[in-house]
Amino acid sequence: RIVIDQHRVALFVAACDAEELDPADLGLHIWPGTHVMAFVLLQMERRGELEGRSLLDLGCGTGFMGILARIAGCRSVTLADGEEPSLRASRRNIAANKVDNVDVCKISWGNGAVDESGDRSFDIVLLSEVLYVARPEVVPWQLDSGEVQSLARLTRAKLKPDGVAWITYGNREEGGAEIFQAAAEAEGLHCAEVPLTD
Predict the structure, then answer these.
(1) Torsion sign across C-alpha atoms 170, 134, 65, 146
(2) What is the pLDDT, as a whole number, of residue 137?
(3) Are strands 159-168 and 76-81 parallel, antiparallel or unpaired?
(4) pLDDT for 99-153, tens place per residue?
(5) Do 105 and 60 touch, CB atoms closer than 8 A?
(6) Over the stretch 150-173, which tens digit does the pLDDT of each residue have?
(7) Are the C-beta atoms of 141 and 173 separated by less than 8 Å?
(8) Cβ contacts of residue 77 below 8 Å, gap of 6+?
(9) Which residues pair with 124 in a beta bridge?
(10) How far is CA 87 from the centre of its chain?
(11) 47-67 pLDDT per residue, tens
(12) Distance between CA 18 and CA 23 in Å, rounded?
């Protein structure tokens, strides 16, 4: 069990050491951006910004952030990932936490994009540690601009007109933050770096 403020989240499927994971299993690791996203969710909860809202956790991995969001007040949560190990882990972690109004579906972007959520849109979209190079072929690592553009397009499509997306990114790849910002702005999204304060 992980304790975050007054909330407890049980994760029965998660990985501690990312270096031993197959690229398809990277979502099972709790990445540094996950801690930041948990902080963001707690701040949103304190400001009343989760209560009654719908949320999509895109690239959900273990489902940790979406489950926390539901416990913290979101009306409904959809956990979405493109990798089967993450979808299985999310289902198991939902059951372990006995949360209702949380569903799981397959969504991916880039080549072979899949969206099993249909035409649903959400008040909040979380993108925690979804930008990375799973199999680096060049040094310094570089994000695929086409995949980033596809992710930005998907984010825009999944947001309600007055919705908000939150992204945490470790900026491991050269120019990654700038690539995502340019892609998001090309889709009509406004990007702003938000300082983490209490």
Answers:
(1) positive
(2) 57
(3) unpaired
(4) 999 999 999 998 889 999 999 999 999 998 877 655 555 555 667 788 889 999 9
(5) no
(6) 999 999 999 999 999 998 877 665
(7) yes
(8) 54, 55, 56, 57, 66, 67, 69, 70, 99, 101, 102, 103
(9) 55, 164
(10) 13
(11) 999 999 999 999 999 999 999
(12) 9
User: Token pair 């570089």 is at which residue?
Assistant: 142
- For residues 123 and 55, give the distance between their C-alpha atoms in angstroms, rounded to a whole number: 6
* Residue pair 57/63 in contact by the 8 Å Cβ criterion: yes
- Give me the pLDDT at residue 156, please: 96
Residue showing tokens 């951006």: 33
CA angle centred on 160, ends 92 and 185, rounded to 5°: 105
What is the DSSP code string of 155-182?
HHHHEEEEEEEEEE----STTHHHHHHH
Residue 43 CA to residue 39 CA, distance in Å, equals 6
pLDDT at 149 (0 to 100) = 93
Spatial separation of the C-alpha atoms in residues 102 and 85, rounded to whole Å: 18
Q: Which two tokens stand for residue 149?
A: 């553009």
Angle at 192 between CA 50 and CA 142, to 5 degrees: 110
